[in-house]
Structure to design on (638 residues):
């Protein structure tokens, strides 16, 4: 019985040795193949090392472990050798890196094998285990250094094809006097709007693909050594640093809330444009590529992958979001509306990307903050648009606008709305949940018959409210003119400008043909009222009232005409067609009456009493409304 028991362990040991030998033979045969990938070849090497050490342990169970100690010494020499070598292992070639990892695997195998034995009963065994742990710790420190070097030396950046973001409101500005946006600038903005179709590759290599297997092999060894936390800290630190550097390339500065609130509009405008461009690049391109990199290296490590990505990206994303929050805390200036809508549109476009990148529970904080800012920007844009309406209503003038021309307020508001129309989808979405009070107010003021037709959406309601508010203000401003005729010229000019802006742009879709017809009627009525207010009293001088002599009537008519000429040549009708139409209407009123007067009294009045012929009057009327003061002394006749 005793002999049987002593024979069994020997037999089992022999079987294990045969199995190890057979396995090692197979590994060597596989290793001789030329068709193996680098990763598979490394795995074979590590398994061969592990089996060799297991063989030694099996042969020495119950013995003095001298061969295990010899194996450890051999591995230690490889570890210690690189401690005195200033060069880097992975820069020295793949063979050196493979041997170093093999040495670590041999140490791990020794530690694993000794772990099942009672070290307290064997001082020699305990010393071997301590030496193995110490060697492993030194090796892990070295791997951290190598990892940081690889990540630093082989990081890759990309430069977007377009390096600036062109907003549809590129040059919109505002001050308390409604300094206007020139029509030519609005045309340029509209043309550029179609040229801003930037395209992106959504996944790029942020680290040279050739070193990905090396990083993975370091991750695998450090994980097997229970040093995954140290790997993550080094990996996160270097990749976070790379992201900060890329933000600098995009010229994004870390600004505090106070810094943002102190910025003048020109500076804030530039920062918002950079931000709008950068957040799209960072989320859609850079972070998508960073996530891919984490998947390539840490895809087999479960939640570690997600944890590392979030820690790499979280601070930079929150920095971008904090800037957006700061912008939304500033004053509600009209020109900010378009920048806010740019920010809102970009964030709305990217929210699916953000939800995908930060889908895990650890990333919920980023998702929550992102959607919070999206709502804040929407609310702030709505409030800014209503503040703009209030600013139009409260824009007061102490003096009449020179020459009855197109007021700065009219130009600014209409060009503002033309740009706003380009944001119709976004702005309509933001307005749709507002109370119906605004719509009702527009119906009461405008009272158009087709209001609830195709042009009755939230955007149309808001734009009509803006124009109604503008019209009301213009009526108030017209009262500053003491001359009724000039009141009509002022209103005719400004309403005509409003109609022209609506007809010649996408605003027509929101106002509709009925609004256009109605407002054409309005400025035409002011033109008719001007002719009546100015010329009816002058023409009445020519009529025979039975009291005034023919000579006196000629003198009075000439004096009245000269006074009108002196005043109304300085009046301004900027639109050439509108000016010609009014000159024709005036001529049709004045010239026939004057011709009849001269014809009926041809035999009773001498040439010395008739200061102007009908041809003279017709020519002089063409000088009206050019915005350049004239007198009859320097007219074309005199």
């Amino acid at each position: 019985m005793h002999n049987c028991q002593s024979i069994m362990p020997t037999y089992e040991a022999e079987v294990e040795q045969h199995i190890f030998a057979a396995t090692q033979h197979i590994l060597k045969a596989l290793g001789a193949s030329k068709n193996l990938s680098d990763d598979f070849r490394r795995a074979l090497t590590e398994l061969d090392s592990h089996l060799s050490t297991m063989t030694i342990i099996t042969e020495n169970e119950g013995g003095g472990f001298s061969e295990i100690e010899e194996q450890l010494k051999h591995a230690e020499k490889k570890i210690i050798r690189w401690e005195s070598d200033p060069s880097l292992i992975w820069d020295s070639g793949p063979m050196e890196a493979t041997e170093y990892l093999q040495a670590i695997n041999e140490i791990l195998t020794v530690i694993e094998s000794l772990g099942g034995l009672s070290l307290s009963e064997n001082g020699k065994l305990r010393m071997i285990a301590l030496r193995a742990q110490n060697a492993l710790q030194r090796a892990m420190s070295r791997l951290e250094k190598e990892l940081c070097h690889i990540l630093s030396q082989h990081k890759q950046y990309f430069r977007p094809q377009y390096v600036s973001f062109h907003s549809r409101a590129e040059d919109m500005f505002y001050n308390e006097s409604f300094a206007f946006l020139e029509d030519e600038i609005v045309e340029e903005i509209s043309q550029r709007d179609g040229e801003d179709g930037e395209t992106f590759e959504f996944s790029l290599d942020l680290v040279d693909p050739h070193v990905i297997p090396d990083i993975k092999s370091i991750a695998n060894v450090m994980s097997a050594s229970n040093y995954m936390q140290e790997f993550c800290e080094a990996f996160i630190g270097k990749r976070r640093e790379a992201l900060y550097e890329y933000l600098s390339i995009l010229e994004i500065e870390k600004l505090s809330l106070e810094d943002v609130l102190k910025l003048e509009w020109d500076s804030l405008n530039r920062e918002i444009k950079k931000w709008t461009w950068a957040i799209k690049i960072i989320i859609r391109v850079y972070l998508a590529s960073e996530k891919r990199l984490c998947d390539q290296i840490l895809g087999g490590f479960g939640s570690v992958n997600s944890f590392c990505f979030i820690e790499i990206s979280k601070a930079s994303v929150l920095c971008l979001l904090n800037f957006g929050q700061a912008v939304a805390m500033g004053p509600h200036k009209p020109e900010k509306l378009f920048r806010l809508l740019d920010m809102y549109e970009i964030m709305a476009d990217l929210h699916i990307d953000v939800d995908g990148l930060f889908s895990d529970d650890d990333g919920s904080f980023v998702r929550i903050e992102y959607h919070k800012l999206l709502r804040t920007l929407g609310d702030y844009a709505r409030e800014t648009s209503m503040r703009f309406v209030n600013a139009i209503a409260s824009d007061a003038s102490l003096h009449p606008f020179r020459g009855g021309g197109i007021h700065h307020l009219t130009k600014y508001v209409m060009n503002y709305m033309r740009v706003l129309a380009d944001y119709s989808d976004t702005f309509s979405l933001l307005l749709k949940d507002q109370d119906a009070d605004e719509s009702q107010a527009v119906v009461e003021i405008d009272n158009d018959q087709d209001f609830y037709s195709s042009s009755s959406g939230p955007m149309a309601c808001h734009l009509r409210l803006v124009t109604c508010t503008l019209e009301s203000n213009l009526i108030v401003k017209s009262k500053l003119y003491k001359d009724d005729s000039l009141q009509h010229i002022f209103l005719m000019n400004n309403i005509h400008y409003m109609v022209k802006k609506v007809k010649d742009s996408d605003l027509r879709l929101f106002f509709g043909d009925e609004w256009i017809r109605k407002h054409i009627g309005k400025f035409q009525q002011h033109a008719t009222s001007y002719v009546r207010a100015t010329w009816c009293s002058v023409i009445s001088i020519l009529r025979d009232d039975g009291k005034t002599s023919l000579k006196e009537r000629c003198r009075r008519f000439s004096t009245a005409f000269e006074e009108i000429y002196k005043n109304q040549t300085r009046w301004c009708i900027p639109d050439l067609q509108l000016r010609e139409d009014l000159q024709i209407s005036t001529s049709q009123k004045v010239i026939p009456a004057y011709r009849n007067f001269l014809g009926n009294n041809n035999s009773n009045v001498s040439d010395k009493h008739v200061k102007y012929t009908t041809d003279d009057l017709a020519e002089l009327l063409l000088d009206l409304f050019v915005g350049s003061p004239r007198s009859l002394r320097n007219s074309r006749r005199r």
Observations:
- The CA atoms of residues 166 and 196 lie 7 Å apart.
- The two ends are 148 Å apart (CA to CA).
- The mean pLDDT is 82.
